[in-house]
Amino acid sequence: MELTPNTQKIQDKWDANFMKTYAQVPVVIDKGQGATVTDIDGKEYVDFTSGIGVSALGYGHPELTKAIQEQAAKLLHSSNIFFNEPHVNAGEKIIKLSGYDKAFFCNSGTEANEGAMKIARKYSDLKYGGDRGTVLSLNKSFHGRTMASLMATGKEAYHKYFYPLPTGYKYVDKNDIEAFKEALKDETICAFIFEAVQGEGGVYPVDKEFIEEAVKLCQEKDIIVICDEVQAGMGRTGKLFGFQNFDIKPDLVTMAKGLAGGIPVGGILANEKVSNVLVPGDHGTTFGGNALAMAAANVVLDELAKPEFLDDVAKKGQYIMDTIKSWNLDEIVEVRGKGLMIGVEIKGKSADVEKAAAEKGLLVLTAGEHVVRLLPPLVISMDEISKGLEVLKACL
Ligand SMILES: Cc1ncc(COP(=O)(O)O)c(C=O)c1O
Q: For residues 1 and 396, which has the higher predicted lDDT (pLDDT)?
Protein backbone atom coordinates (compact mmCIF):
# COMPACT_ATOMS: atom_id res chain seq x y z
CA MET A 1 0.00 0.00 0.00
CA GLU A 2 1.43 3.35 -1.09
CA LEU A 3 1.88 5.65 1.91
CA THR A 4 1.28 9.40 1.69
CA PRO A 5 4.01 11.60 3.28
CA ASN A 6 1.66 12.40 6.20
CA THR A 7 0.93 8.74 6.86
CA GLN A 8 4.59 7.83 6.53
CA LYS A 9 5.49 10.45 9.14
CA ILE A 10 2.98 9.03 11.61
CA GLN A 11 4.05 5.46 10.98
CA ASP A 12 7.70 6.38 11.54
CA LYS A 13 6.77 8.03 14.85
CA TRP A 14 4.86 4.93 15.88
CA ASP A 15 7.74 2.62 14.98
CA ALA A 16 10.16 4.80 16.95
CA ASN A 17 8.09 4.86 20.13
CA PHE A 18 5.78 1.86 20.44
CA MET A 19 6.13 -1.85 21.09
CA LYS A 20 5.31 -3.87 18.00
CA THR A 21 2.14 -5.44 19.35
CA TYR A 22 -0.17 -4.86 16.37
CA ALA A 23 -0.23 -5.73 12.67
CA GLN A 24 -1.48 -2.42 11.38
CA VAL A 25 -3.06 -1.05 8.23
CA PRO A 26 -1.38 2.26 7.35
CA VAL A 27 -4.40 4.54 7.63
CA VAL A 28 -4.31 7.51 10.02
CA ILE A 29 -7.89 8.18 11.05
CA ASP A 30 -8.55 11.80 11.87
CA LYS A 31 -12.33 12.10 12.25
CA GLY A 32 -15.63 10.46 11.49
CA GLN A 33 -19.31 11.03 10.84
CA GLY A 34 -21.94 8.31 10.81
CA ALA A 35 -20.12 5.20 9.59
CA THR A 36 -17.60 7.10 7.48
CA VAL A 37 -14.15 8.10 8.67
CA THR A 38 -11.68 10.54 7.16
CA ASP A 39 -7.90 10.20 7.25
CA ILE A 40 -5.36 12.99 7.79
CA ASP A 41 -5.18 13.61 4.03
CA GLY A 42 -8.95 14.04 3.73
CA LYS A 43 -9.60 10.64 2.13
CA GLU A 44 -12.89 9.05 3.20
CA TYR A 45 -13.46 5.41 4.12
CA VAL A 46 -16.68 3.53 4.78
CA ASP A 47 -16.11 1.88 8.14
CA PHE A 48 -17.02 -1.80 8.43
CA THR A 49 -14.98 -2.13 11.65
CA SER A 50 -16.36 0.36 14.25
CA GLY A 51 -12.99 0.16 16.00
CA ILE A 52 -13.45 -3.62 16.48
CA GLY A 53 -17.08 -3.41 17.48
CA VAL A 54 -16.78 -0.41 19.79
CA SER A 55 -18.23 2.61 17.97
CA ALA A 56 -21.73 1.17 18.00
CA LEU A 57 -23.36 4.57 17.43
CA GLY A 58 -20.80 5.51 14.79
CA TYR A 59 -18.98 8.82 14.78
CA GLY A 60 -20.29 12.27 15.69
CA HIS A 61 -23.53 10.85 17.14
CA PRO A 62 -25.26 14.04 18.40
CA GLU A 63 -26.64 12.71 21.74
CA LEU A 64 -23.48 10.77 22.55
CA THR A 65 -21.26 13.75 21.78
CA LYS A 66 -23.44 16.07 23.85
CA ALA A 67 -23.56 13.71 26.83
CA ILE A 68 -19.77 13.28 26.81
CA GLN A 69 -19.14 17.01 26.44
CA GLU A 70 -21.53 17.93 29.23
CA GLN A 71 -20.22 15.24 31.56
CA ALA A 72 -16.60 16.21 30.84
CA ALA A 73 -17.36 19.76 31.87
CA LYS A 74 -19.08 18.61 35.06
CA LEU A 75 -17.25 15.59 36.52
CA LEU A 76 -14.90 13.03 34.99
CA HIS A 77 -14.19 10.69 37.85
CA SER A 78 -14.90 10.30 41.53
CA SER A 79 -14.19 6.57 42.32
CA ASN A 80 -16.47 3.98 43.84
CA ILE A 81 -15.91 5.29 47.34
CA PHE A 82 -18.74 7.68 46.45
CA PHE A 83 -21.77 7.51 44.16
CA ASN A 84 -22.20 9.34 40.89
CA GLU A 85 -25.48 9.68 39.01
CA PRO A 86 -24.42 8.52 35.53
CA HIS A 87 -23.09 5.27 37.09
CA VAL A 88 -26.27 4.62 39.06
CA ASN A 89 -28.48 5.46 36.07
CA ALA A 90 -26.55 3.18 33.69
CA GLY A 91 -26.88 0.35 36.22
CA GLU A 92 -30.61 0.86 36.53
CA LYS A 93 -30.99 0.90 32.74
CA ILE A 94 -28.96 -2.24 32.06
CA ILE A 95 -30.74 -4.17 34.81
CA LYS A 96 -34.14 -3.15 33.47
CA LEU A 97 -33.18 -3.92 29.89
CA SER A 98 -31.48 -7.25 30.56
CA GLY A 99 -33.65 -8.72 33.30
CA TYR A 100 -30.55 -9.61 35.33
CA ASP A 101 -30.33 -9.06 39.08
CA LYS A 102 -27.16 -7.02 39.64
CA ALA A 103 -24.48 -5.25 37.59
CA PHE A 104 -20.80 -4.39 38.02
CA PHE A 105 -18.96 -1.98 35.74
CA CYS A 106 -15.26 -2.12 34.93
CA ASN A 107 -13.04 -0.98 32.06
CA SER A 108 -12.54 -3.66 29.43
CA GLY A 109 -13.66 -7.03 28.18
CA THR A 110 -10.80 -8.99 29.62
CA GLU A 111 -11.37 -7.41 33.03
CA ALA A 112 -15.08 -8.27 32.87
CA ASN A 113 -14.22 -11.91 32.16
CA GLU A 114 -11.68 -12.01 35.00
CA GLY A 115 -14.37 -10.71 37.35
CA ALA A 116 -16.94 -13.24 36.13
CA MET A 117 -14.51 -16.13 36.61
CA LYS A 118 -13.75 -14.87 40.12
CA ILE A 119 -17.48 -14.89 40.93
CA ALA A 120 -17.84 -18.44 39.59
CA ARG A 121 -14.84 -19.68 41.55
CA LYS A 122 -15.95 -18.04 44.77
CA TYR A 123 -19.49 -19.41 44.38
CA SER A 124 -18.04 -22.86 43.93
CA ASP A 125 -15.53 -22.51 46.76
CA LEU A 126 -18.22 -21.48 49.23
CA LYS A 127 -20.49 -24.35 48.23
CA TYR A 128 -18.14 -27.19 47.33
CA GLY A 129 -14.67 -26.25 48.62
CA GLY A 130 -11.59 -24.99 46.84
CA ASP A 131 -10.87 -28.04 44.66
CA ARG A 132 -13.69 -27.17 42.27
CA GLY A 133 -12.25 -24.24 40.33
CA THR A 134 -11.71 -25.35 36.73
CA VAL A 135 -13.06 -23.12 33.98
CA LEU A 136 -14.21 -24.88 30.81
CA SER A 137 -14.13 -22.97 27.53
CA LEU A 138 -14.40 -23.66 23.82
CA ASN A 139 -11.54 -24.16 21.42
CA LYS A 140 -11.01 -21.17 19.08
CA SER A 141 -12.61 -18.86 21.64
CA PHE A 142 -11.24 -15.47 22.64
CA HIS A 143 -11.72 -13.98 26.08
CA GLY A 144 -8.94 -11.41 26.45
CA ARG A 145 -5.27 -10.89 27.15
CA THR A 146 -4.86 -10.77 30.93
CA MET A 147 -3.66 -13.96 32.58
CA ALA A 148 -6.95 -15.64 33.50
CA SER A 149 -8.79 -14.51 30.38
CA LEU A 150 -5.97 -15.59 28.11
CA MET A 151 -6.06 -19.01 29.76
CA ALA A 152 -9.82 -19.19 29.15
CA THR A 153 -9.05 -18.39 25.51
CA GLY A 154 -9.03 -21.71 23.70
CA LYS A 155 -6.03 -21.12 21.48
CA GLU A 156 -2.56 -22.19 22.45
CA ALA A 157 -0.89 -19.43 20.46
CA TYR A 158 -2.15 -16.95 23.05
CA HIS A 159 -0.66 -18.92 25.96
CA LYS A 160 2.84 -19.84 24.87
CA TYR A 161 5.78 -17.87 26.27
CA PHE A 162 3.85 -16.63 29.29
CA TYR A 163 4.94 -19.37 31.68
CA PRO A 164 4.20 -20.35 34.36
CA LEU A 165 0.59 -20.40 33.21
CA PRO A 166 -2.32 -20.11 35.64
CA THR A 167 -3.90 -23.52 36.19
CA GLY A 168 -7.53 -24.61 36.20
CA TYR A 169 -8.56 -24.31 32.54
CA LYS A 170 -9.93 -26.91 30.15
CA TYR A 171 -11.05 -26.74 26.54
CA VAL A 172 -13.55 -28.54 24.38
CA ASP A 173 -14.62 -28.25 20.73
CA LYS A 174 -17.78 -26.29 20.07
CA ASN A 175 -20.83 -28.03 18.66
CA ASP A 176 -19.67 -31.47 19.85
CA ILE A 177 -22.09 -32.36 22.62
CA GLU A 178 -20.54 -35.80 23.24
CA ALA A 179 -17.12 -34.22 23.85
CA PHE A 180 -18.82 -31.68 26.11
CA LYS A 181 -20.48 -34.44 28.16
CA GLU A 182 -17.11 -36.18 28.44
CA ALA A 183 -15.47 -32.94 29.63
CA LEU A 184 -18.14 -32.46 32.29
CA LYS A 185 -17.11 -35.75 33.90
CA ASP A 186 -14.32 -33.68 35.44
CA GLU A 187 -15.78 -32.93 38.87
CA THR A 188 -13.49 -29.90 39.34
CA ILE A 189 -15.32 -27.76 36.73
CA CYS A 190 -17.02 -24.73 38.28
CA ALA A 191 -17.71 -22.58 35.21
CA PHE A 192 -18.31 -22.74 31.49
CA ILE A 193 -17.50 -19.60 29.47
CA PHE A 194 -18.42 -19.15 25.81
CA GLU A 195 -19.22 -16.59 23.10
CA ALA A 196 -22.60 -16.82 21.34
CA VAL A 197 -20.72 -15.90 18.17
CA GLN A 198 -16.96 -16.51 18.28
CA GLY A 199 -15.56 -13.26 16.93
CA GLU A 200 -11.77 -13.37 16.88
CA GLY A 201 -11.92 -17.13 16.24
CA GLY A 202 -13.48 -16.62 12.79
CA VAL A 203 -17.06 -15.37 13.30
CA TYR A 204 -18.68 -18.70 14.14
CA PRO A 205 -22.13 -18.63 15.76
CA VAL A 206 -22.44 -21.63 18.09
CA ASP A 207 -25.06 -24.22 17.09
CA LYS A 208 -28.38 -23.66 18.78
CA GLU A 209 -28.87 -27.32 19.69
CA PHE A 210 -25.37 -27.65 21.10
CA ILE A 211 -25.44 -24.57 23.29
CA GLU A 212 -28.94 -25.19 24.61
CA GLU A 213 -27.96 -28.74 25.62
CA ALA A 214 -24.55 -27.64 26.99
CA VAL A 215 -26.12 -24.96 29.20
CA LYS A 216 -28.73 -27.44 30.46
CA LEU A 217 -26.01 -29.94 31.39
CA CYS A 218 -24.08 -27.22 33.24
CA GLN A 219 -27.16 -26.13 35.15
CA GLU A 220 -27.82 -29.73 36.22
CA LYS A 221 -24.33 -29.83 37.73
CA ASP A 222 -24.48 -26.35 39.26
CA ILE A 223 -21.71 -25.19 36.91
CA ILE A 224 -21.85 -21.41 36.45
CA VAL A 225 -22.55 -20.43 32.84
CA ILE A 226 -20.76 -17.27 31.69
CA CYS A 227 -21.62 -15.76 28.33
CA ASP A 228 -18.88 -13.49 27.01
CA GLU A 229 -20.89 -10.81 25.20
CA VAL A 230 -17.95 -8.47 24.77
CA GLN A 231 -18.15 -8.60 20.97
CA ALA A 232 -21.58 -10.14 20.24
CA GLY A 233 -23.45 -8.12 22.86
CA MET A 234 -24.90 -4.62 23.00
CA GLY A 235 -27.11 -5.07 19.94
CA ARG A 236 -24.42 -6.39 17.60
CA THR A 237 -26.40 -9.48 16.51
CA GLY A 238 -29.74 -7.67 16.34
CA LYS A 239 -30.61 -8.66 19.92
CA LEU A 240 -29.39 -6.96 23.08
CA PHE A 241 -27.21 -10.03 23.73
CA GLY A 242 -25.99 -12.72 21.37
CA PHE A 243 -27.24 -15.48 23.68
CA GLN A 244 -30.80 -14.23 23.12
CA ASN A 245 -30.62 -15.89 19.71
CA PHE A 246 -30.93 -19.14 21.70
CA ASP A 247 -33.26 -20.40 24.39
CA ILE A 248 -30.78 -20.02 27.26
CA LYS A 249 -30.10 -17.69 30.16
CA PRO A 250 -26.49 -17.65 31.41
CA ASP A 251 -25.76 -16.97 35.08
CA LEU A 252 -23.23 -14.27 34.23
CA VAL A 253 -22.91 -12.01 31.21
CA THR A 254 -19.80 -9.99 30.41
CA MET A 255 -19.84 -6.84 28.30
CA ALA A 256 -17.49 -4.14 26.98
CA LYS A 257 -16.77 -2.71 23.50
CA GLY A 258 -20.01 -1.07 22.28
CA LEU A 259 -21.42 -0.44 25.76
CA ALA A 260 -20.12 3.13 25.96
CA GLY A 261 -19.86 3.76 22.21
CA GLY A 262 -16.11 4.42 22.27
CA ILE A 263 -15.18 5.27 25.85
CA PRO A 264 -13.38 2.38 27.61
CA VAL A 265 -15.83 0.33 29.65
CA GLY A 266 -16.63 -3.21 30.72
CA GLY A 267 -19.36 -4.82 32.76
CA ILE A 268 -20.75 -7.94 34.37
CA LEU A 269 -24.39 -8.90 34.84
CA ALA A 270 -25.34 -11.54 37.39
CA ASN A 271 -28.53 -13.48 38.01
CA GLU A 272 -29.91 -13.96 41.52
CA LYS A 273 -27.93 -17.14 42.10
CA VAL A 274 -24.57 -15.35 41.91
CA SER A 275 -25.38 -11.67 42.40
CA ASN A 276 -24.42 -11.63 46.09
CA VAL A 277 -21.29 -13.77 45.87
CA LEU A 278 -18.87 -10.85 45.96
CA VAL A 279 -18.67 -8.79 49.15
CA PRO A 280 -16.58 -5.70 49.99
CA GLY A 281 -12.90 -6.49 49.62
CA ASP A 282 -13.38 -9.31 47.06
CA HIS A 283 -13.25 -7.28 43.89
CA GLY A 284 -13.06 -3.71 42.65
CA THR A 285 -11.62 -1.26 40.18
CA THR A 286 -10.52 2.35 40.38
CA PHE A 287 -11.94 3.45 37.04
CA GLY A 288 -15.03 1.20 36.88
CA GLY A 289 -18.22 3.22 36.69
CA ASN A 290 -16.24 6.29 35.74
CA ALA A 291 -18.70 9.17 35.28
CA LEU A 292 -17.58 9.97 31.72
CA ALA A 293 -17.83 6.35 30.55
CA MET A 294 -21.19 5.97 32.26
CA ALA A 295 -22.58 9.16 30.69
CA ALA A 296 -21.74 7.62 27.32
CA ALA A 297 -23.16 4.22 28.32
CA ASN A 298 -26.46 5.87 29.24
CA VAL A 299 -26.86 7.14 25.67
CA VAL A 300 -26.00 3.75 24.16
CA LEU A 301 -28.43 1.98 26.52
CA ASP A 302 -31.20 4.43 25.60
CA GLU A 303 -30.71 3.52 21.93
CA LEU A 304 -30.59 -0.22 22.66
CA ALA A 305 -33.88 0.06 24.56
CA LYS A 306 -35.65 0.93 21.28
CA PRO A 307 -36.91 -2.29 19.64
CA GLU A 308 -36.75 -0.64 16.20
CA PHE A 309 -33.03 0.01 16.68
CA LEU A 310 -32.31 -3.71 17.13
CA ASP A 311 -34.68 -4.71 14.29
CA ASP A 312 -32.80 -2.37 12.02
CA VAL A 313 -29.46 -4.00 12.96
CA ALA A 314 -30.88 -7.44 12.16
CA LYS A 315 -32.28 -6.25 8.80
CA LYS A 316 -29.06 -4.53 7.73
CA GLY A 317 -27.01 -7.57 8.71
CA GLN A 318 -29.26 -9.89 6.71
CA TYR A 319 -29.07 -7.53 3.73
CA ILE A 320 -25.26 -7.52 3.80
CA MET A 321 -25.04 -11.30 4.09
CA ASP A 322 -27.62 -11.91 1.35
CA THR A 323 -25.91 -9.43 -0.96
CA ILE A 324 -22.47 -10.99 -0.51
CA LYS A 325 -23.90 -14.47 -1.08
CA SER A 326 -25.72 -13.27 -4.21
CA TRP A 327 -22.40 -12.37 -5.84
CA ASN A 328 -21.66 -16.11 -6.15
CA LEU A 329 -17.95 -15.38 -6.20
CA ASP A 330 -15.63 -18.34 -6.57
CA GLU A 331 -13.29 -16.70 -4.06
CA ILE A 332 -15.86 -16.94 -1.24
CA VAL A 333 -15.97 -20.15 0.80
CA GLU A 334 -18.70 -19.15 3.27
CA VAL A 335 -20.60 -16.14 4.57
CA ARG A 336 -21.72 -16.48 8.19
CA GLY A 337 -22.65 -14.47 11.25
CA LYS A 338 -25.58 -12.78 12.96
CA GLY A 339 -26.78 -9.21 12.60
CA LEU A 340 -23.88 -6.85 11.97
CA MET A 341 -21.26 -9.42 13.01
CA ILE A 342 -20.34 -11.03 9.73
CA GLY A 343 -17.51 -13.28 8.58
CA VAL A 344 -16.64 -13.83 4.94
CA GLU A 345 -14.38 -16.85 4.64
CA ILE A 346 -12.29 -16.66 1.50
CA LYS A 347 -9.74 -18.79 -0.31
CA GLY A 348 -7.12 -16.04 -0.32
CA LYS A 349 -5.60 -14.10 2.54
CA SER A 350 -7.90 -11.86 4.54
CA ALA A 351 -5.03 -9.45 5.28
CA ASP A 352 -4.66 -8.84 1.53
CA VAL A 353 -8.34 -7.94 1.26
CA GLU A 354 -8.02 -5.70 4.33
CA LYS A 355 -5.22 -3.70 2.68
CA ALA A 356 -6.79 -3.61 -0.80
CA ALA A 357 -10.09 -2.42 0.67
CA ALA A 358 -8.40 0.35 2.64
CA GLU A 359 -6.72 1.53 -0.53
CA LYS A 360 -10.15 1.75 -2.20
CA GLY A 361 -11.85 3.48 0.74
CA LEU A 362 -13.28 0.69 2.89
CA LEU A 363 -12.12 -0.47 6.33
CA VAL A 364 -12.63 -4.14 7.17
CA LEU A 365 -11.21 -6.49 9.82
CA THR A 366 -9.76 -9.95 9.69
CA ALA A 367 -10.47 -12.94 11.95
CA GLY A 368 -7.61 -15.29 11.18
CA GLU A 369 -5.86 -15.92 7.88
CA HIS A 370 -8.91 -16.49 5.68
CA VAL A 371 -11.82 -14.63 7.26
CA VAL A 372 -12.73 -11.04 6.43
CA ARG A 373 -14.69 -9.76 9.42
CA LEU A 374 -17.31 -7.02 9.14
CA LEU A 375 -18.42 -5.15 12.29
CA PRO A 376 -19.90 -1.86 11.02
CA PRO A 377 -21.29 0.74 13.42
CA LEU A 378 -24.86 -0.32 14.26
CA VAL A 379 -26.13 2.99 12.87
CA ILE A 380 -24.57 2.52 9.41
CA SER A 381 -26.85 3.85 6.64
CA MET A 382 -27.99 1.86 3.61
CA ASP A 383 -26.06 4.27 1.43
CA GLU A 384 -22.84 3.56 3.32
CA ILE A 385 -23.55 -0.17 3.19
CA SER A 386 -23.97 -0.04 -0.60
CA LYS A 387 -20.76 1.96 -1.04
CA GLY A 388 -18.82 -0.41 1.21
CA LEU A 389 -20.16 -3.54 -0.46
CA GLU A 390 -19.21 -2.25 -3.88
CA VAL A 391 -15.58 -1.90 -2.74
CA LEU A 392 -15.62 -5.26 -0.98
CA LYS A 393 -16.88 -7.00 -4.13
CA ALA A 394 -14.15 -5.41 -6.21
CA CYS A 395 -11.51 -6.53 -3.69
CA LEU A 396 -12.77 -10.10 -3.54
C1 LIG B 1 -15.35 -12.05 22.94
C2 LIG B 1 -14.29 -11.18 23.50
N3 LIG B 1 -13.99 -11.25 24.80
C4 LIG B 1 -13.07 -10.47 25.37
C5 LIG B 1 -12.36 -9.57 24.62
C6 LIG B 1 -11.32 -8.71 25.28
O7 LIG B 1 -11.81 -7.42 25.38
P8 LIG B 1 -10.81 -6.21 25.71
O9 LIG B 1 -9.91 -6.07 24.53
O10 LIG B 1 -11.72 -5.04 25.93
O11 LIG B 1 -10.07 -6.59 26.94
C12 LIG B 1 -12.63 -9.44 23.25
C13 LIG B 1 -11.87 -8.50 22.43
O14 LIG B 1 -11.83 -8.55 21.25
C15 LIG B 1 -13.61 -10.27 22.68
O16 LIG B 1 -13.91 -10.20 21.39
A: 396
Which of 22, 142, 198 to mutate for ligand 1's pocket (most ligand atoms within 8 Å of CB)?
142
196 and 47: one domain? no
Q: Which atom of ligand 1 is the closest one to the Cα of 266?
A: 10
Nearest atom of ligand 1 to the alpha carbon of 146:
11
The average pLDDT across 352-366 equals: 98
Same domain for 290 and 246 = yes
pLDDT digits (tens, 9 = 90+) for 115-136: 999 999 999 999 999 899 999 9
Give yes or no: residues 255 and 363 share one domain.
no
**Same domain assignment for residues 242 and 257:** yes
Q: Is the CB of residue 229 below 6 angstroms from any atom belonging to ligand 1?
A: no
**Domain end call among 304, 331, 362:** 304
Rg (CA), the chain: 21
Q: Give the pLDDT of residue 339.
A: 98
The total number of structural domains in the chain stands at 2
**How far is Cα 35 from Cα 47, in angstroms, rounded to an integer?**
5
Question: Does 67 reside within a domain?
Answer: no
Same-domain check for residues 275 and 147: yes
